[in-house]
Design goal:
By secondary structure, this protein is an alpha/beta fold. The protein is built from twelve helices and seven strands. It has one domain: Vaccinia Virus protein VP39 (Rossmann fold, 3-Layer(aba) Sandwich).
Length: 254
């Protein structure tokens, strides 16, 4: 593997990303225009209608141009496998960014309707362009909002997009790590997850979601069956990360 790929500190875009960490929490973007540049790169270089090529082109941009904060190629394989196990008809992603995660879900589950909730309208616009180029815009939808906005986004998912009791087969958490547990609880409160549904959570070690991890450990064998997958932070092989894959066993009996 190329040394710059393995060691992120050798890549200038990583240092720019570190400087833009504050932007990520408020705007959903690094702040140097890399997300819009990634879209233009995909449209210029990836074959239209070819999901595989679009994903490979995003990965190439992240390695050779500017680091991106989507799940990436290594952890993406874990996501793919979990999606295939769930075989969803309805899938939910929290945290759209450039649309990469939803695209992997759509590829692994070609019969699924995929909904991705995103805080930033700019990210939603970028993702929609990529999905259109990949040929999946008819079954991948971005909903601008947050699960923690007092119920507005949850109500929109229910009222406009068919989310109902037991209808949700798969969820991917890749947004604000501090919101993982609260947002999962909100989804559980709605009763959307069917028994056997799978929830995948990225970046559980870095930046970290300790409350979410502790909850999954505490409810192991009762509400959830969780496997912790060791991996690396996206687009490098120096910093370790964890991906949690949790099967919902069903609501606790009263």
């Amino acid at each position: 593997m190329d040394l710059k790929r393995r060691l992120p500190i050798l890549r200038w875009s990583v240092w720019r990303m570190a400087a833009g960490n504050r932007n990520i929490t408020t705007t959903g973007q690094i702040g140097d225009g890399r997300e819009a540049a990634a879209v233009e790169y995909v449209l210029a270089n990836a074959r239209a209608g070819d999901i595989d090529d679009v994903l490979a082109t995003i990965d190439k941009f992240a390695y050779e141009k500017s680091m991106l904060i989507n799940v990436g190629d290594e952890k993406g394989l874990l996501l793919d496998a979990a999606v295939r196990r769930a075989d969803p008809a309805l899938a939910l992603e929290l945290g759209t960014y450039c649309g990469y995660g939803a695209l992997r879900i759509a590829r692994a589950a070609p019969r699924a309707k995929v909904y991705s909730v995103e805080l930033a309208e700019a990210n939603a616009a970028n993702a929609r362009r990529i999905w259109e180029h990949a040929g999946v815009a008819d079954r991948v939808t971005c909903v601008v909002g947050t699960i923690g906005d007092g119920g507005r986004t949850l109500d929109a998912l229910a009222g406009e997009h068919g989310f109902a009791s037991g209808a949700l087969d798969f969820a991917f958490l890749d947004h604000d790590k501090n919101a993982y547990l609260d947002d999962l609880m909100s989804i559980l409160d709605r009763g959307w997850l069917r028994p056997g549904a799978i929830v995948v959570a990225d970046n559980v070690r870095i930046p970290g979601a300790p409350k979410y991890r502790e909850y999954m450990r505490r409810t192991q064998g009762e509400l959830w069956n969780t496997v912790e997958h060791k991996a690396h932070l996206e687009y490098q092989s120096l910093v370790s990360d964890l991906v949690l894959e949790s099967e919902f066993l069903g609501p606790a009996s009263s």
